Amino acid sequence: MTDLERERVLNSVSQAVSFKPAYMTNDKLEAAVKGHGSLVISAYAISNSIAEDIFCPYGAPDMELLDRMTLVDASVATLPLDMVMEKAINSAKLAGATPENAALLAAAFAYFTGSCARSGVPLGNRKLGAIARIHAGVPRTSAISLITGKFTHKIPAFPAYMAIYEELVDKKLTRVDGSVLPPFVSGGAMYGHSALGEDYNFPELAYNAAKVGTEAMIKSMHGAGIYAYPLWPAFIGSAITLEMIHSDAALGEEYGTFTGTDSAYMAGKGAMDAAGIPAKIHVRGTNEEYDTARVIGDFGLILKDIGGPSVVGSMALDEVFAGFQEAATMGAGFSGGPVNAPLGHVLGDCMPAIRMLIKYKGDVYKTADDIREYKMNSFIDPEYALCSLNTIARKAEDVTRGSVSTACLLASEDVKQRAVYRRAVKSYEMLKAGKTVEEVARQLDDERKAYVEERGSQVLSGFTGKDIKVRFTSITPQGRRTDNFTKKFWAFDANICFEATVNGKDYKIDNFAAKVIPEYVVDGKGRDDPDMGTVIFAGSVLSQELQYVGHTILNITIPAATGALLGGDPKNVAKDSQKGAYLTSAIPGGKEKAMEVVAVAKQIYDRINEPFP
C-alpha cells in the first residue's frame, strides 16, 4: 500500500471515530441531553449562558454584566442579576434539568461569578437561593428536602434535624436561655443589633448547631456503611442551622468587622470544623483562594431557600466543587481527578472556566491553555481526561454554545486528535505486520494498563506520602457471579488481582473486590496491619481508573475501523476488537459503536478521492 493509501486509511479512521460525540464513548451520552441520570449538560448550559451575559462578546461594552452581578439590597424591583438568572435557568431546563435542579446550579454558578449569597436587612433583602427558586417557579419546601449526593447510598437531612433540635430542646446550643427573657427583648433591636444577640446567642447558636448537624450526617453515613465524604454533611448542617437562626445577623467585634462576619459565616465555620474540611480552598487554574467557612455558610443560605433539588442535583453541586484543588479532601465530586469518572460527572471544569474567563477578560484561548495545564497535572491518565472533556463539551454544544464549552474544546481538541491519530497509526502498522484486530486492541489495552500502573503509583505516592507501587496481575470478569452478562462485561463483578508495595512491604492481592475488601471491612482481616488500608485505597483508585473506561472507547473503535479499511469484515472486526480490548470492554456497547464507526470510516475512505460532477 502506498503512502497515499496509508494516509487515506488514517484520515478516514481519525475522522470517523469522532464523527459525533457518542462514537467516543459507551456512556449513555444522549440521555444526558434531557437530564436523565446527570445534569452535566445542564451545567454547561448554565455556565455558557452566564458567561455570555457577563461578557456579551457580540454587543457593546456597556452590555457586559460582569460588574453588575453583585446582589444588592437596592430599592428597585429587579436587578441585572434577575435577567441573568432567568436566562440561565431556562437554558438548564432546555437541557432537561427540573426547575429545582436548574435553580440550584444557576445559583451556584452565579455565586462563583461574583454574586454574594445575600444582601440587605430587612426591606429590600435579597437572597441568591430565593431569587433562583423564584425564577425557576418552584416552592421552597425547606431544608428537610435536602439530600446528600450518591456515595453508593444517599442520606436525607433528617439526622441533622433530629440532632440539632434535640440539642435545642435540651438548651445545649447557646448560653442564652429564652425562658428568662423579659418581653420585648427578642424580636427587635435590643437583641438583634445588640450584645445579647451579636456577642452571645448568634455566634454560639450558629456554630454549635451547624457542628452538631454536620456530625450527625457524618455518623449517619457511617451507619449506612459508607465513607463520609464531608462536603454534603457540612452543607446540610449549615443549611438547617441558617433556616432556624437569624441568617442575616452581624456578630460582635471580637469576631470581625460589622459586615465582614455574620451568622452564616459562623454556621459555615461550625460545619467546616466538624467535617474537617481545609480552612482555605483554591480554584483550579487561577489558584484564587476562598475562605471555606464563608463558602459553606453561603451555600447553607442558598440551599435553605433553593427548593427541593434531587439526588442528581446534589451530585451536580458536588461536581461544581470539584473545581477546587482540595476537592479530594472535601469529598467534592469525581471530575477533578485523579480518577477519570463516567461522563455524567464531567462538569467540574465549568466553574474554573468561568473564573479563568473573568481573569482573562473573556479570552477563551488563554482560558483553554490553563484548563489543559491543570488537567494534565490532576489525573492519572490526562489523555483520557481531556478526551472525556472534549466529548462532553462537544455534546453540550448540541444544546447551547458559549465561552465555557468553547474553552473546554480548545483545551482538549489537540490531545483528542493526538490520541486518535497515534492509535490509528499503531493499528495500521500492527495490522500490516500481520497482527489481528484482536491482538491490536489487546496491545492498546495492555499499554494503557501499564501506564495507569506507573503513573497511578506516582500519583498515589505523592498523595499519601508513602512509596506505593501497584501492578495488576489479572483483571477478569466474575469475582463471584456466574451469569452470562457479567461474564461479558467485567465492570459489574470484577475479579481483580494485583501486587502492591507500600514503603518496601509487599502485598499479593487476589480477587480484590469480591474477597479482600469484604474480609477487611466485615471480618476485620488485615486491619491490624497499618498499611493494609493504604493497599485497599490504592487498589480501589487504580482499579476504578480502569473500570470506568467506558467514557472513552478508542481502543475498540480504532482497531475495528482500521481493520475494516484493510479488508476485514465489518461485523467480525467489531466483534474481535471488543474481545481484544479486554479492559475497554468493561461495559456494553463497544461492538455496536465500532460497527457504526466502521460504516462511517468506509464511506469516507471510499469517497475521499471521488471527483465532483
Structure description:
The protein is mainly alpha-helical. The protein is built from 25 helices and seven strands. The chain has helices at 3-17, 29-32, 40-55, 80-94, 99-113, 128-136, 158-169, 189-192, 195-223, 231-244, 263-275, 292-305, 311-321, 327-330, 350-359, 364-378, 382-396, 403-432, 437-464, 484-488, 512-523, 532-547, 554-565, 570-580, 590-607; strands at residues 118-119, 126-127, 280-282, 289-291, 468-477, 494-502, 505-509. It has a three-stranded antiparallel beta sheet. β6 (494-502) and β7 (505-509) form a beta hairpin. α19 (437-464) runs antiparallel to α23. The longest helix has 30 residues, at 403-432. It is globular and about 95 Å long.
User: How would you sum up the major sheet?
Assistant: 3 strands, antiparallel
**Unreliable stretches covering 5 or more consecutive residues:** 58-64
Rounded to the nearest angstrom, the distance between the terminal CA atoms is 28 Å
If you compute it from the alpha carbons, what radius of gyration comes out, rounded to the nearest whole angstrom? Answer: 27 Å
Number of strands: 7
On the 0-100 scale, what is the average pLDDT?
93
**Strand proportion:** 5-15%
Q: Could you outline the blueprint of secondary structure elements for this entry?
A:
Blueprint: H1 3-17, H2 29-32, H3 40-55, H4 80-94, H5 99-113, E1 118-119, E2 126-127, H6 128-136, H7 158-169, H8 189-192, H9 195-223, H10 231-244, H11 263-275, E3 280-282, E4 289-291, H12 292-305, H13 311-321, H14 327-330, H15 350-359, H16 364-378, H17 382-396, H18 403-432, H19 437-464, E5 468-477, H20 484-488, E6 494-502, E7 505-509, H21 512-523, H22 532-547, H23 554-565, H24 570-580, H25 590-607
Antiparallel strand pairs: 1-2, 3-4, 5-6, 6-7
Helix pairs in contact: 1-18, 1-23, 1-25, 3-4, 3-5, 3-15, 3-17, 4-5, 4-6, 5-6, 5-13, 6-12, 7-9, 9-10, 9-11, 10-11, 10-12, 11-12, 15-16, 15-18, 16-17, 16-18, 17-18, 18-19, 18-23, 19-22, 19-23, 19-24, 23-24, 23-25, 24-25
